[in-house]
Write a structure and sequence with these properties.
By secondary structure, the protein is an all-alpha fold. It has one domain: ABC transporter involved in vitamin B12 uptake, BtuC (Orthogonal Bundle). It is 74% helix and 1% strand. The chain is built from 15 helices and two strands. It has helices spanning 3-21, 23-42, 49-58, 60-73, 82-97, 104-127, 133-151, 161-164, 176-194, 196-206, 208-213, 218-244, 255-265, 277-296, 301-319; strands spanning 170-171, 174-175. Strands 1-2 form a two-stranded antiparallel sheet. A hairpin with a 2-residue loop joins strand 1 and strand 2. The chain is globular. The relative contact order is 0.19.
């Protein structure tokens, strides 16, 4: 007699509980679906599969950088140097490749090495020197930006043909770039949701002291989050090189605000402990399609920023994020 109520709670209560827990992620993807429907109705450009596919490919750079920022923000931190890391990594790779395929391994290794070094420095400044994340990474932003413009104020180097070809290559009609990104997001999701390290990231962001008392090595987790962030930012710089062909000192000029916007739209709390990578992906795609739509209907750039800002403020109001005490 008692089995029926249990079954009822399982079939009815479980889905509603899942929706409640995934509300922020679902909101981001619902916004994307609404945007796609709106853009398809208002702009003939978006009725072309080729344009939609190109928009997805164009979003890969920002989405990878947004994933990088996620790993720091979910712990309650922030990395303001992410755009500069992508910039200087992309420049270094372009210079080292110099248009030659044999130089690709060296260039990729050097770019990721830059990301690793910057991540270690940021992590040490935050966890060992005890400088607040905002100040530490803000200083690193200017250091790297200064290095980039000191080296050159003009585009430098050039991507190797095979590397540059990743943007156009396809397998069975599916762009290689999107296949690579699918693998990237699958790995990131697994790390964030299915590993002990991922659970520790959320624990540190939710309540660092409680996590420490529970046995989580909070300092190591926080340090690792900055290393991962900078490594992924460097990888994003490499990825953007498949589109720009050359390294430019202003490559990541707008990347910081764009990635933070994607993180917010994706439902990640800026105070840590809440949000998902799938939501961040949705947020990055929202920004990509919104920008493409604005360009297709020739909306003034200032209005674009205004509308994006209003969307972010509206979502922050919906999420009702509270500062941790």
């Amino acid at each position: 007699m008692s089995a029926q109520p249990v079954a009822s709670r399982w079939t009815v209560g479980r889905p509603s509980e899942w929706v409640r827990r995934q509300a922020r992620t679902l909101l981001a993807w619902s916004l994307l679906v609404a945007l796609l429907l709106l853009t398809t109705a208002l702009s003939e450009t978006f009725r072309s599969p080729a344009v939609v596919l190109e928009t997805f490919k164009g979003a890969t750079f920002v989405s990878m950088a947004a994933a990088a920022e996620f790993f720091v923000v979910v712990t309650g931190g922030i990395d303001l140097s992410i755009g500069s890391v992508a910039t200087i990594s992309g420049m270094a790779a372009a210079v080292l490749m110099n248009g030659r395929d044999p130089n690709i391994p060296l260039a990729v290794g050097a770019a990721l090495g830059i990301g690793l070094v910057v991540g270690v420095i940021n992590g040490l400044l935050v966890t060992w020197v005890k400088i607040t994340p905002f100040v530490a990474t803000f200083g690193m932003l200017y250091v790297l930006q200064g290095l980039a413009f000191t080296y050159s104020v003009n585009p430098v180097g050039q991507a190797a043909p095979t590397f540059y070809g990743l943007y156009e290559d396809s397998i069975a009609g599916v762009p290689v770039l999107l296949l690579l990104m699918a693998g990237f997001w699958a790995i990131c999701w697994y790390v964030a949701r299915q590993t002990a390290f991922g659970k520790h990231l959320y624990a540190v962001g939710g309540d660092s002291e409680a996590a420490r008392l529970a046995g989580v090595r909070t300092t190591r987790v926080s340090f690792a989050s900055y290393v991962i962030c900078s490594l992924l930012a460097a990888a994003a710089g490499l990825l953007e090189l498949t589109q720009t062909y050359v390294g430019t000192p202003d490559l990541g000029a707008t990347l910081l605000l764009t990635t933070i916007s994607a993180v917010v739209i994706g439902g990640v709390s800026l105070f840590g402990g809440e949000g998902s990578l799938i939501g961040v992906l949705g947020g990055a795609l929202v920004l990509a399609f919104l920008g493409q739509f604005f360009d297709s209907v020739q909306v003034n750039a200032f209005y674009q920023q205004l509308i994006e800002g209003l969307i972010i403020l509206a979502l922050l109001g919906i999420y009702r994020q509270k500062v941790k005490r």
